[in-house]
Amino acid sequence: MKPAPFRYAAPRSIEELLALKAEHGDDAKFLAGGQSLIPTMNFRLAQPAVLLDLNTLPDQNFIVETSSGGVRIGALVRHSDIETSETIARSHPLAHEAIRFVAHPQIRNRGTLCGNLAHADPASEMPAVMLALGGRFHARSAVSDRWIDASDFFLSIFTTALEENEMLCEVEMPPLPPGSGTCFLEVSRRPGDFAMMGVATVVSLDEAGRCAEARIAYCSAGETPLLAPGVVASLAGEEPDETALLNAARQAAEEIDPPGNVHLTSAYQKHLVAVLTGRALRTAFARANTNASQ
Amino acid sequence: MTAATNRYFGSPVLRNEDAPLLTGAAMFVDDIDFSDMLHVAFLRSPHAHARIEKIDTTATQKCDGVVAVFTADDLGAFWAPSPLVVPPPPIEDLVFNQRTQTPLARDVVRYVGEPVALVVAENRYLAEDALDRIVVDYDPLPVAAELEPSAQVDAPMVHDVRGNVAAEVRQVKGDYNLAKNNADVVIARRFLYEHGLAQPIETRGIVARWDTKAEHLSVWAATQTPTSLHGGLAQLMGLGSHQIRVVAPFVGGGFGSKLLMYYPEELMVPWAARELGSSLKWIEDRSEHFVATSQERGQIHDAEIAVSQDGKILGLKDVFLHDNGAYNPYGLTVPINSQCAVLGPYVVPAYDSSFKAIFTNKPIVAPFRGAGRQHGVFVIERLLDIAARQLGIDRVEIRRRNLIPSDAFPYKNGIMFQDFTELQYDSGNYLPILERTLEIIGYESFVRDEQPILRAEGKCVGIGVVCYVEGTGIGPYEGAKVQVDPSGRVHVATGIGTQGQSHFTSFAQIAADLLGVAVDEVDVTTGDTDQFGWGAGTFASRGAVVAGNAVHEACSAVREKILNLAAEHFECSSQQLSIENGAVQTLDRPDQSITIGELAVLANPMRGAVKPGTEPGLQATRYFGPEAGTTASGAHAMIVEVDRETMMVKILKYVVVHDCGTPINPMVVEGQIHGGVAQGIGNAFYEKVMYDDAGQIMNATLADYLIPTSMDVPVIELDHIETPSTMNPLGIKGVGEAGAIPVAPAFAQAVEDALGIAEGGSEILEIPLSPNRLWELAEGGTQ
Amino acid sequence: MLEELVTVSTVVNGKHYRRIVEPRLLLSDFIRHDLGLTGTHVGCEHGVCGACTILVDEKPVRACLMFAPQADGHAIETIEGLAEENGELHPLQEAFRDKHGLQCGFCTPGILMTMKAFIAQHPAATEGEIREALSGNLCRCTGYQNIVEAVKLAVSRIGGSS
Description:
The complex is a heterotrimer of chains A (294), B (783) and C (162). Chain A has 294 residues and is α+β, with helices and mostly antiparallel strands. Chain A has twelve helices and 14 strands. Chain A has three domains: 47 residues, Uridine Diphospho-n-acetylenolpyruvylglucosamine Reductase, domain 2, CATH 3.30.43; 111 residues, Uridine Diphospho-n-acetylenolpyruvylglucosamine Reductase, domain 3, CATH 3.30.465; 112 residues, Enolase-like, domain 1. In chain A, 37% of the residues lie in helices and 23% in strands. In chain A, the strands form four sheets. Chain A has a five-stranded antiparallel β-sheet with strand order 4-5-10-6-7. In chain A, strands 11-12-13-14 form a four-stranded antiparallel β-sheet, with helices on both faces. Chain A is globular and about 60 Å long. Chain C has 162 residues and is of the alpha+beta class.
């Protein structure tokens, strides 16, 4: 399983990288971690004529807190960097919790967050996390520079809002609302496998102990990570007791229609949606409770 | 003759072979390199069934680094259906339609992955580039994909046989109809059992080198059967056996997939090497392994058990279909094993078993660790569970009541086994195995105390206990040549190969005991036909038994030579001599000793005369051919916890009590069982190869075909009972496959118990399972 | 700027190498065939089995999921570098022998390199942590039990306890 031939560049600046991409367009692919791209190339499912290697770019592995308490993450930040980042553990425990479900340490040592997001595998964990967090994606090309909201970023399987010559050069996780509780849960056949179903949720409580805000996103549930506004609506202003959670779970199973695949029936996936929604919300609200009282 | 020590035999001796393996120095087939080496890639059919209208290779001429491209038309007389590796046993009225594969497909392809052309290039990358430039015009034909539809009389024909009948076999003992009439209860069920792919971490591979000047072919292959490959190549390539050397270097696991099949690749690479006068290498990649290498797959059993009110088996009847795949070079080993395994360790007075092996447009089905026994064990163990439930008998108790009693050995089963002899269990003691298993797993206290408590806490826990026997150590024979070198080191050569079974140590243990040396003073060569060219190979849990006994015979002969020569040398009786620390000592004169190395020199004189009827040197070659296999046995038990919502299963406790006779090295035996159980867990809950209607594999990557990881395999608690084999002087039985065989029915029983679904009418009648499938069964859904 | 051949300068087991290669050459093939270090094995070429695991800048990675040019300027450690120069085995290697943690040995180099990095980071790793850390390496022979025992033994020996 050897890849087809390609021409290769390892530019020393982003400008150079973007210029090369503009020059070669669709014939060129970015190589960051390579943990998704290289297997597809080894299978010869992808045969890019040109590979533009990001790994020699300087200054791209930053994890930086913003003034508002968010975090900006650069293009060469590896999944393992996120796993060991004290900043992210403190400010975005959802990401810290989810990252350990991404494949295995050997993959996490190379794979980049931005690369994973740009690859947009609907079964990947971090796209759902970014969606739940309401993250923002910084896209640059030789001629453009813009930010895209997570809710606008994932369009379809392996398809994002990135235009032909754009590169995802960083992402921003906005600050979590004060007193939030988060939870990432996943069920997979073996550790590190793609999720049969995964859910990322951020919730917060008001002073009366009722749900103030909630965001909940699913992976392996459709062609992209999916939000569940109906579930959110069902929780708004409610005390998150077992009835509310059961209700939310039921709502989720109605709202989310997983397609099934060669391994799983959609009925079973739908069942997992309900199960994981209840479990994740229960944990997230409990954590919100703890955080609120601190 | 003074007796040999038992210093090593039966001890957990650390392995001789570990140093090179631990340091990366061990040579596997892909590690071999020659300066003139070229690399091979195969073009494989993308269709499960199609006519080949035309193959156009002209575009490859423009490809960089391509040296040659071959198709079937280039092969001349070499293109022919391959010989049958394993003929079917002489069972009365057996129908066997031999249809074997050819070195490359011509006119028709019959499974996705069947090789159509071969490219030779400077490296594998360039070879694969060239594959993309070959244009083949296929005319797709209707596909016989799924087993049962393929058996219909009007199904698309894989060959020229209506109903795709590869074989029809019926074996009968006693009178089942009479048993059925006399039964208090008859239970009939349909069982669906699929076993999977071997997936050794090292795929197949072969290096072949033709020396034009010497007219000699050297082959290094990741094979379990180097001597058989040697014989096959000699025959097919029209070469003398002295003109070929086949070496199986270190091999990274086999589990059946690296047996001689006359795989196209193992014929084409040597042929092409001779054609080009060069050295060639082909290494199977993982993608290829899913289509190019033999696999096991499914059987459909319509089985029934006739029992008396107290749970005694009066008779069994089984009619099953076996998915054969597109060709049948390996004969009927797998389904006949299934047929025999249904009898289990039980007294079965009447048995009527018939099967049809069905051609399908899928890769060849040939043994994968267990080799069809899994299917049969599942049938009998599940029937007993169901009978127990219906009769209100504890499912362990029903087994007790049917186990063959310990005074009934050798026990004749009345039907024929894969080795052409009547299925006979030479020795065994099944009840203590079961009782010990129950003791270790804590069956009584679990069922009576722990389970109800955990259930009251809302936990979903269950226990499963199953029994099995395994025919091991079959013939035809193996051999060994043993020689003492002037250095005092001992060399043992045998024809079987090693794929992790620790032969370099276990055979050394035998030799070291007999020849009075340290175990690491014995060098073992397995799988080099220049060193030893006779034998069958490593399969069917026979390596240690058959080759081990041959080593023993040969070492005994050398021991005798040593002592006789030393006796002559010291002018005393050999009764007064012992061999210790590599030297022969006289018992009453400790100052008088001679090393075996010195004796080896004396045995090979430059002057004088070697006596008629004797041989020079301290060497002997001996063979061991067991009359029949020897029967290992055991019981497995497990406790599981099921997450009732997600249906994820955790194995909390796993116990194996087994009997493989007298173990040469208990450490090695335990390792074999651990590995077997892991594969059994894979079979039960993770590994399923999935095909669509067009015969395409849908999960041909290791991300989609799920091999158990360290988190999926529990700690396995082991105990042993020993009933020595009566089929060989060492009393040993095989153990290679035992761990893998009964796991699935134990799993099914435990999970069924945990979920309590059988009471609700949802029985587990299929393997493999998955969380998805358990959820459907629990919901009362159907497939 | 686009190259059809690339120069790779890398340090492997402390030794400098410089080669000119096609950029598509997988690092696993580069190590095995260009450098002749065949102890790193290839099992799947899609990053799942872990047999090809090596250390790059002291971190375990799949050699089959890197192109050789990506090793330029980096330090690699393979199984050949695990034992001392004088042949003295690493405690992991000794423990694997003592606990029968290998059978066919094909997956072993990848596991040893993974575990070397793991126990350096987790010198007091528990059995459960060890078992989890192994989950990215497939073994088809051992059922993992003796591998876990071997790593436990290595941890205790390195830690100095008996």
